Amino acid sequence: MTGRVMIIGAIEAGKSSLVKALFNDEQPARKTQALEYRDWVIDTPGEYSENPMFYRTLMATSLEATIVVMVQDATRDRNYFPPGFAQGFPQACVGVITKVDHPDADVQRAEGYLRQSLGDARIFPTSSYTSEGVPELRAYLQEIVSE
Ligand SMILES: Nc1nc2c(ncn2[C@@H]2O[C@H](COP(=O)(O)OP(=O)(O)OP(=O)(O)O)[C@@H](O)[C@H]2O)c(=O)[nH]1
Ligand SMILES: [Mg+2]
């Protein structure tokens, strides 16, 4: 593998749980305090996506990544990314909806939010709890980072 995937999204959106699911790691995720490099993934703290003060850090870190994964929590009634955010990155972005297993999940709503910020890119609905959608996402990302 040569490339890397950078994962961004709001606080508690399920980014680190998704990283663990991608690596079949059963341990629960703890709060991400700083950029975390693991194999072909760069996990980011949710604060970096919620606070525009950190956008420059995200943009700089994205230079180390082949693709940016924009995460939207299916249970959240809010989009934390500004409209057209994906266009600010030099590389491709892909969307991931997390927590589709949750009783409060609204996948359609989450997709609507992601479309505002992501454009036409592909979107993967996932659950780190049930692993729904995780094999598809893993295969897609591994293909990209191994190119
Ligand atoms: N129901 C459900 N809950 C999930 C899922 N993934 C994560 N969670 C829960 O969501 C909370 C936040 O998960 P994290 O993976 O730590 O979220 P994060 O985006 O890494 O958060 P920060 O590191 O603070 O930015 C935890 O309580 C998880 O148990 C999921 O697929 N389904
Ligand atoms: Mg985290």
Automatic annotation (TrEMBL):
One of its GO terms (biological process) is biogenic amine metabolic process. SUPFAM superfamilies: P-loop containing nucleoside triphosphate hydrolases (SSF52540). One of its GO terms (molecular function) is ATP binding. The keyword Amino-acid biosynthesis does not apply. It holds the Pfam family PduV-EutP. The keyword NAD does not apply. Keywords: Nucleotide-binding. Belongs to the EutP/PduV family. This is Ethanolamine utilization protein EutP. It comes from Brevibacillus parabrevis.
